[in-house]
Amino acid sequence: MFLAEPQPTSADLHFTVRGIPVRVSAWFWVAAALLGWSVCQSMAQGDQRELLRYLLVWVGVVFVSLLVHEMGHALAYAAFGQSARVVLYHFGGLAIPDYRRASTLRRPIERLIVSAAGPLSQLILAAAIVVILKTSGYQVPFPIAAVDEWLGLHAGRPLPSPLSFALVWFVLQVNIFWPLLNLAPVPPLDGGQIVREGLLSLGVSNAVQIAGMLGVATGAAVSYWAVTHGQPYLGIMFAMLAVTCFQSLSGTSWNR
Question: Distance (Å, rounded) from C-alpha 100 to C-alpha 193?
Fold first, then answer.
């Protein structure tokens, strides 16, 4: 499966957060830079030095945001007595439980909470940034216009520099849209896991098959939308997820 953990290399970065081991694949940095290249190039308007600065900010935002996401999963595992480690790589991140010991997550509701903890952590981070900026009297470059108008987030004094504007814009984009996409009901994304565990907690015997069929349909729909709206990377990713769901319907179960 393409969301499997990549093989370690000597170029990987290793550290710990609150006792949780973290490994960052060397390819993570390359993938993050490529993902943000177009938007950073547009913001730099031909200035190569500015492009580099925007790219560094973008990669830093992606790194911190995905680390927050996966730490949310890992800390939820820990709350249920299950140790885990975090891996960041070219397809995003993984929180991997320690399989050397028996899993303590025996109930579907516990696994549901673990799956929800990642995207929820990112949404909380985005909300915290908005609150801090508003209480400080700054305008908030919120990426959803309707919410911006409703909450009056555009009111206030502008951010002090184009780079600070880019930093806030990147943080809100990554920590709002990415977790919402991750909540799409497509296994093995968190939304697919939540659907599966929710159905299991309700006693639905064929929960895995239902989640898989929903994943195929949703993955195909998102892939089509992305390709027709100029988002080829997103389209390819969801097409691969749909294929993975289809293959899994033959009898493979999904386990985080």
Answer: 22
| Residues 34 and 121 occupy one common structural domain | yes
Please indicate, yes or no, if residue 8 is contained in any of the structural domains: no
Q: How many CB atoms lie within 10 A of CB 235?
A: 18
Alpha carbon 65 to its chain's center = 8
143 and 91 in a single domain? The answer is: yes
CA distance 225 to 219: 10
Tokens of 147: 């919410």
Instruction: Judge whether 32 lies within some domain.
Output: yes
Residue 114, pLDDT score: 95
Residue type, 196: R
Its domain, for residue 178, covers 13-183
Tokens of 105: 């997550």
The contacts of residue 14 (CB under 8 Å, 6+ apart) are 21, 22, 23, 24
Per residue in 6-64, pLDDT tens? 889 999 999 999 999 999 999 999 999 999 999 999 999 989 999 999 999 999 999 99
Q: Which residue reads 């397809």 in tokens? A: 91
**Tens-place pLDDT, residues 194-242:** 999 999 999 998 999 999 999 999 999 999 999 998 888 889 989 999 9
pTM of the entire structure? 0.90
Last residue of a domain, one of 159, 183, 207: 183
Same domain membership, residue 138 and residue 207: no
Q: Which residues, 6 or more positions from 248, have their beta carbon under 8 angstroms from its beta carbon?
A: 187, 212, 254
Residue 5 lies in a domain: no
